[in-house]
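Ticket #4471: structure export looks truncated?
Reporter: QA, pipeline team
Priority: medium

Steps to reproduce: submit the single chain below to the structure queue and open the exported record.
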Amino acid sequence: MTTRRATKKKEHPLSMRLPDADIAIIDRAAGMRGRSRTDFVREAAVRAAEDVLMESTLVRMSPSGFNAFMKALAEPATAVPEMVELLKRPAPWEASGSRK
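Actual output as written to the record:
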């Protein structure tokens, strides 16, 4: 006889009541991403939670690390040629053929 061990569920249910308009926009966006409603909402909620946590995360560094950081900030910026070229390009709505 084989005995089965009880395994703990690693997932926790989350239930929300949302108006039809909210469900419609979530379903539309999830469909555009090829995701299920659950996957889409879970990913959005986790991303929002990470953003909040990152806003309040304390960064610790040694005094010498802090001094090196401040020195790097005080130095003149170095242009990145690829970024300079990109920023010189007209925006798509400014492309040739548009009326001015």
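Status: closed, not a bug. The export was complete when the record was re-opened. Leaving a note from the reviewer for reference: The chain has one domain: 20-94.
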